[in-house]
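HOLO CASE FILE
Compound: protoporphyrin IX containing FE
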Amino acid sequence: MPTESLDVTSKKIKVWDLPTRLFHWSMVCLLGLLWWSAEEGEMLWHQIFAYSLIVLILFRLVWGVIGSDTARFTHFIKSPKEVLQYLKQRKKSTIGHNPLGGYMVITLIVVMLFQFISGLFATDDVFTEGPLYSYVSDSVSSTLTSLHKLNFDLIIALATMHILAVIIHGIKGDKLVGAMITGHKYVADDIQQQLNFRSNLLAFVLICLLAGVVANYLILPLTAML
Ligand code: HEM
Ligand code: HEM
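Model generated. Tokens follow.
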């Protein structure tokens, strides 16, 4: 009888660098804080959390080009043909994102970018307006505010699918969560792949640069009003 479990795994290798792991878990925390702050009407914090999240997302976009092998977009964005092939031979565990998961990663990043951009034009009709609110008409702002609220439901739906996929992989023996925490994963013995990892210092400098620009232009003007 065919088994659904993944390959027998026997060797432990490093798959995720520290910057990618920190990006992931900080982003999850910030999304929780963004939801909480909007629910509680803590709109100053909402904006500060949103600007912190955009630093992470911008970092991830750059890291997707210059970062470690498994973090690079070219490593995990595959052709539809390769996705179909992967789906047919479901038993393979992969190093980095699998071909289907790669598309989910891109989708999650795009919907978060849209959430951020729509927030820049949003208003709560009381005290808070995004910094680009005054550049558009009331009706455009109101549409973008509605989309900002709707799109968050989409983020939740996609994140739920993402978490379910991770759980299903776990049940089949491919322990992805542990790898996203420790950076290491057990893979099949026959997988031979040389991975290059970029320095954590480079990531740190990049994050500091991005944080400096965002803090200067977006966060400091907010706190100066206090
Ligand atoms: C709001 C919730 C979440 C969002 C938006 C999200 C988004 C993402 C994104 C964008 C990546 C790609 C990381 C990268 O390449 O930089 C990723 C990977 C991953 N996430 Fe999440 N995540 C969420 C919650 C979770 C949770 C709660 C778990 C644990 C149960 C989890 C487990 C993972 C794992 C294991 C990977 C790596 C998957 C692989 O090996 O291909 N995520 N997630
Ligand atoms: C990716 C980052 C962001 C996330 C995840 C996020 C999330 C949310 C959520 C969950 C809500 C509540 C939706 C609802 O009531 O159904 C909300 C509302 C809102 N957000 Fe954001 N937001 C983000 C970025 C921003 C930014 C950058 C701004 C402006 C600087 C902003 C301004 C607002 C405003 C004005 C509201 C409306 C509050 C109301 O009508 O009560 N958001 N956001």
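CASE NOTES: The helical segments are 18-40, 43-66, 73-76, 80-88, 99-120, 138-171, 176-182, 200-224. The beta strands are 9-14, 184-188.
CLOSED: yes
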